[in-house]
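How a chain folds remains the central question behind the approach discussed here. In the encoding step, the backbone of a single protein was reduced to a row of integers, each denoting a local shape. We regard such an encoding as a compact summary of how the chain folds. The sequence in question and its structure tokens are set out directly beneath this paragraph:

___
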Amino acid sequence: MFRAHRSAAVSAWVIASALALTAMSPAPRPGPAERAGTAAASQAAPEAAAAAEAAEASVIGEDHARAHARLRQAAKGSKGYPQTKRTASLTALRDSQAKTNARFDAARFGRFTEFFPSPDFGVHVAQLPTGKVLLFSFERTEEDPTKETGPTNTVGRTNAGRAYLWDPARGTGPRAFKKVAPPVVLMPDGSYAPRPAPFFCAGHAYLPNGMVGVFGGNVGGKGGSGAKLSFVFDPWTENWYRNRDMSAGRWYPSVVTGADGRQIIMSGQSERGTGTPTPVAERFPALRHPVPWRSFDIPVDFASQRLRSDAPFRNDYPHLFSLRDGMIYGLGRDADQQWLFDPVKEVRTDLPRRPADFRGYGSAVPLPAGFRGPDSVLVLGGDPRDPLTYRLSGGRWTVEEPRAFGRTQDNTVILPDGSLLTVNGALDTRDYGNGPFNPKADLKYRQIELRDARGRWRLGPAQRLPRGYHSNALIMPDGRMMVTGDELQQIANDPDMEDGMDGSIELYEPAYLHRGPRPALDRVPAGELGHDTSFEVSSATPKDVARAVLLAPSTVTHSVNTSQRHLELRITGVRGTAIGLRTPPTAADAPPGYYMLFLLDAKGVPSTAKWVKLGVR
């Protein structure tokens, strides 16, 4: 069954001793998020800092002590990278963006519009069926962008997660954001320090009821070690719920939702630390639990289930896709690790070797295929020396049209009109063209690229910030694209490091929003829609409607977006303001869950989307 959880006198010398101990110890510097650092790094500094914090907390309280720790760290960071430098950098980026974009016609290339602060880095983002966007990441341990910002290799209380909701309906100011802190947990790191769950660098996908399943995270130490954590975020109550731990720790895993609504979890560094990717594949929820279907079906204390077949990816965050044949396609970073998984028989078979060599953090997109679900995937990015794109279709690879140049850390999204757009990117993990951990960036990595229906790419306008590692993008119900992520660039260009808004979001209006008035979509069915079923929507502009499209919402991190999907709907007739439509044939074509329904005119201009739910249980 589903269940729902619903100062005394202070001794000055003790505080002074705690502060002095912290000051004598160098600030713990986490290893690179790519885990280039070694697990043998000295633990003396983190242990000393933890002891100091514990001593201070015993006197003035945990919250007050944490505030002191943040102030001390901010003082250190401001010396190496003062606010004047951040402000000047952001101003220079604004000016170069305006100069670059003056030559791009919005009706052909779209345009970047709003740029505003966010309380979170947006290492992970998810478009929710409520219209809000979930952002989550980690509490920073460093304010100098030339150093690693996150707590990858730290142990204890500072290795913590955080999460927020952004409500676009409330605008772009601080009031538009709501903190939705993850549950407080005790991690198996020997510190016995409760903290908000460090679920950064986890994997995630949607359940049929619109909830987001989040799996894994970072225990801390060992160059980055995997957590067994399992959560769901409920967009309806705006709360997190914890489930039973997975059978294996996972840091950098991938998750995909199959045709039955259950989630398949693969890869990730194990609890033993960097260099130990787990081959264990799991299913959530386990078959003995029902699939969370209705909005009030909250999985709590549910277990995952180990699959009989394994997934021995050598490198983590593989791209996973559930295509129209109902199979799970696991496309690893290594050219020889391309696999097909049968989620029913729990069998793994080989796919042909990808033509390109090793690819790091690059995009992969299930290509639109009309009225049926996708049957091919386009793999692109991940190698700064290779601008080519590669398509897997019918069990074989073909080389497709190149982009203007190679880039890693890019995000490629499907737009409502079926075209593709690449945003973000870098030369390497923390290298934007001028050396690692150097916030200065080559302008080209700030330019978007657009792919039309013929597969041709062209460069477009530049975004405000360069965004590489941990960058993200998604399409919102109003048809705009939200861009965020890359904590290094966000703190390097923070207009006010003291206001608690250390992230940023930028919005882009695709070209279709500059080609005339939008069709109207006034009403859609409130209940669930079965597959291969006729239904009606109402529109005040029925004569303007040429197409109807379902676009799955995105939940994305580390250039991995397993949830994207674009489907055309058959128009069965028009009667007054009522437009008859027909849903995709099967759950393999369109897995059960929430979709954004757009009506488009002959020029590809979309309506504002309304949410529909596919699948009847």
In short: The longest strand covers residues 566-575. Residues 1-45 have pLDDT under 50 and may be disordered. Helices lie at 12-24, 44-60, 62-80, 83-101, 106-109, 487-492. The chain is about 15% helix and 30% strand.
